[in-house]
Design goal:
Blueprint: E1 11-17, E2 26-33, E3 40-46, H1 52-66
Antiparallel strand pairs: 1-2, 2-3
């Protein structure tokens, strides 16, 4: 996943939430990093984000910025 590509331990829980059957699901990610000595926590919700993997991708980009990770 996008988070594992950061090569650091991150605690994370993903999910999707359905509001209506006529609209895409909402994507969610709750996480903190680093796992052993947390510096940051994050709660993301992407309205109509389709799948939790979209929230994971966004979360990884935010962690890259916070920890100055260049790929």
């Amino acid at each position: 996943t996008a988070l594992s590509s950061l090569h650091m331990s991150i605690a994370a829980k993903t999910g999707t939430a359905q509001e209506r059957t006529t609209d895409p699901d909402h994507a969610t990610l709750i996480s903190y990093a680093p796992y052993d000595n947390p510096e940051y926590c994050m709660a993301l919700r992407i309205q109509n984000g389709y799948a939790a993997s979209n929230a994971v991708t966004l979360g990884a980009e935010i962690y890259k910025m916070l920890f100055n990770i260049n790929e």
